[in-house]
Amino acid sequence: MIQGMINSFCNLFKKSATIDFPNEQMKISKNYRGLINHSDSDCIWCDVCEKVCPPGAILFLQNMDGSKKYNYNPYLCIYCGECVRNCPKPNEALWQEENIAFSSSSKKEVQDDWFSLEDECKIARVKYKEHKESLKKSQKVEQPLS
Amino acid sequence: MVKIELQKDNILNELAKFYDYKRHGFMTVNGVDLGDKMEIQWIFYDYSEKNSTIVYFCLFDYEDEIPSVVSIVTPAWIAEAEVVDMFGVNIKGVNRGFFLEDDSIKMPLRKIS
Amino acid sequence: MTKVLNVPLGSQHVALLEPVSFKLTTKNERVVEVTADVGYVHRGIEKACETKFKFKQIPFVVSRVCGLCSITHATTSTLAIEKLLNLEVPKKAKYLRILALELDRIHSHMLCLAHTAENAGYEALFMRILRDREHVMELQEILTGNRVHFDYVCIGGVNRDFDNDLNSTFEKYLKIFENFTTEIKELFLNNWSLSLKYKGVGAISADRALEQSLAGPLIRACGLKIDVRSEFDFLPYSELDFNIITSDGGDVYGRNMVRLDEIFESIRLIRAVINNLPEGDIQTKVKGNPDGEAIVRLEAPRGELFYYIKGSKKPNLDRVRIKTPTFTNIPSMIDMLKNQEYANVPAIIASFDPCLSCTAK
After folding, report:
1. pLDDT digits over C27-42, tens only?
2. Looking at the domain that runs over B2-91, which CATH code has it been given?
3. Among residues A27, A69, C150, C261, which one has the fewest Cβ atoms lying within 10 Å of its Cβ?
């Protein structure tokens, strides 16, 4: 009992176990898995990251002129890092931050229309394929003439 | 993994001959949809042997009545209830509704082409 | 005069962690009849594995079955798929998998002990164990980069290498673990409400445990040496002098002791892994698609985890069957609740360490 009293008295003066968050920053270990970042200039547009992503948090929207637009949903992402590991140019085209991701730092990141975007990407891809085939056909028709 | 095929009318006899709860652990009852038939597996292992898995299996049609093994293997009722809910098969004495609610999808794991 | 009362327990209840509902029929505060309903959190993960996801994504999907034993789910499914692909995994990767598995076991057992303490009316100890558990989570974050869903294991090996400068960090943390586990064990041994009160509560005989095919710390608390880690050679546990921890009595107290001793054993295994870590690669290349059937069992913190995987040379698998430890233990839980006093019911349920999101998948 005496031991118990000593313990409880000592506990009064102990440092608290919790972190006083806004004043004190959280301890983040090296190699923490944060947000996925993408660089348009280094990407070779191979779509590997889109194919390997388990939840489907990366989408490429096909434009009619052949270029693609990278879309990323941080709220669907499970931060497994599989896309970075499979990327042919890791740390240049695609890399994972080591900082902690704050909840919705801007309204732009909240993507309400993600599922309609998914459908849009599928339709755009089919359309682009048709467009390409029709281009090829017209070229083939033109070739024997010239 | 040892796989032993059983005949439809001989399942309970064979399992009763084999299973001794002091020697064998019971793992689970498993169902596999083969497209036109159901394969029901009863999976056991041996406590004393290393790397031992003993699989008894039997092929059934979808409408067949499958005998329940609860009289031989006591804790099998929960696995049987899951197979009934997931595949919509007919196991004797097992009711639906242990895993899935009445208004949910019927037989979700069936491969319906 | 006997009075019969029907008491529902769950699906929302202060003593229950997860949504499970029991309907108890009590006679003079003594339970005579139990029925259970476990399907509250069914998410159709087996169906998703067969239809939506390719086999390379399966470890990420199945690790979402459970938050506490996510690494065990991922490892078991990976081992099964590797068996179908005939992949030989580098030895270093196998050792690192053991490291992650044992760290997971420590924090899962600590959560269970915390809840057992809470159900004995010992809220302060609950807070204290969870405070200490935070250190384990930190170490997991250092090793894998995430706190809960590690995504550390992949088909062909592991995702992250173990740097040699982590050695000192691990040693520092392991010392902290040892200190607080010793303190907690002393409390569980000597405190009246945790030791004397729990002796004989929810007892099950070894014979009955075998008949009900119990798994994990529950069957080891009956004094039976049954542990999947010593039965299979998927992971090199035998090279690390693995001992099976047992206790006697088969009651709540015995289970607590098994869990506490297993934490010490896990700490010892982690040390052994770090000291004997072989050099070499951590991944091999994956070629081809899985073909055939494979069954893999592995010891999760709560008992044995079972995966049945069937593939037919396609990127999508034909059948994934998950059997989780709580699923095996529920028949005996229902069996054990009979003839107990109603006041003991929450403590018995907590001592099973039930994980309903595992069970319903």
Report:
1. 888 888 888 887 788 8
2. 3.30.460.80
3. A27
